[in-house]
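Weekly structure sync, notes
Attendees: PL (lead), two postdocs, one rotation student
Agenda item 3: pending single-chain targets
PL asked that the sequence for the first pending target be pasted directly into the notes so everyone works from the same version. It is reproduced below exactly as submitted, 364 residues in total.
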Amino acid sequence: MNQQKKKIKNINQIVKKNILNLIPYKSARLLYKNNINNKIMLNANESPIISLFSINNRILNRYPEQQPKELLNFYSKYINLNNENILITRGADEGIDIIMRTFCNQEYDKILFCPPTYDMYRVTAEILNIKYLMIFSINDNWKINFNEIKKNLKNIKIIYFCNPNNPTGNILNKDNIIQLLELTKNKIIIVIDEAYIEFCLNHTMIYLINKYENLIILRTLSKAFGLAGLRCGFILTNKYIINILLKVIAPYPISIPVLDIAIQALSTKNLVIMNNNVKTIINNKKWLIKKLSNCSCIKKIFTSKTNFILVKFYNSKIIFDILNENNIIVRNQNHEKILNNCLRITIGTFDECKKLFFTLQKIS
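Predicted structure, written out during the meeting:
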């Protein structure tokens, strides 16, 4: 035992201090390590609809292109943006990381983000030993405090927004973002994380890319496309930033099987299927919200433009435990003070939504 402690101490002397002190991001799978068979998994904002793709290209002895032209062309057509404005990444998480590594100097640069939001902005900054500033959202409407942001731009290099936001489900005010883009021209990069945008496409900010050189948008196939296991995302920005990011990204970020399935997913036929799946999930969400509105154990259901809802309970711990006992796994947000007694619930299949409702109805 003493020998083991000595080894740990020796390794700890080598590891960077910021990594030793890091509070890591806890993924849904890390938080719930039990067998997921026969469980209703409503904790990771995954699509409940299984994508039935098979790998066509089985030649795996050659490296893929760094940025496969065929996938760039398919995604370009899907979002109506030139392929020179697109960088393919291993999910949006790699996008968050390489943007920070490209633009931030550890000595004096900071990033800024607005909790409650996706925790990988904080975690990535801590891993890279980059300072960060948090401007908390205003009240239960989760509105971004743009006035406070404008007062605190000294040494800020990147501002990260999630739109629609995770875990609250609300959307950004476009006029405020445009004002901020104007204010930060040639000084600060504004990153809009649109992981959930397919659930409210009219709120995308892609149309601003060619107008503002300091705007970067993140996208993914994980949510609406039902391909969370694929790990395929995109950075959308002007060609000058794309060319700089190409210096930083890994030589072969996308494997051939991922490339194969991503191209299939973006075919005309499968885009129709994806859009129909989005409509199904939105209808399930409307049904669930209507039913949950009558549950006496619920204090508030927050407005959501995504495939999940944030729900405030009178006692979320009891609810979380009872749902768990009934094999319904949701995401506990109670660790955040501003999300006290809140649970984030992914919208599942209609049968899964019914089981969730009936379980909460019994508690009520």
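Discussion points:
- The chain has two domains: 26-45+270-363, 69-266.
- The CA atoms of residues 17 and 129 lie 9 Å apart.
Action: rotation student to compare against the earlier draft before next sync.
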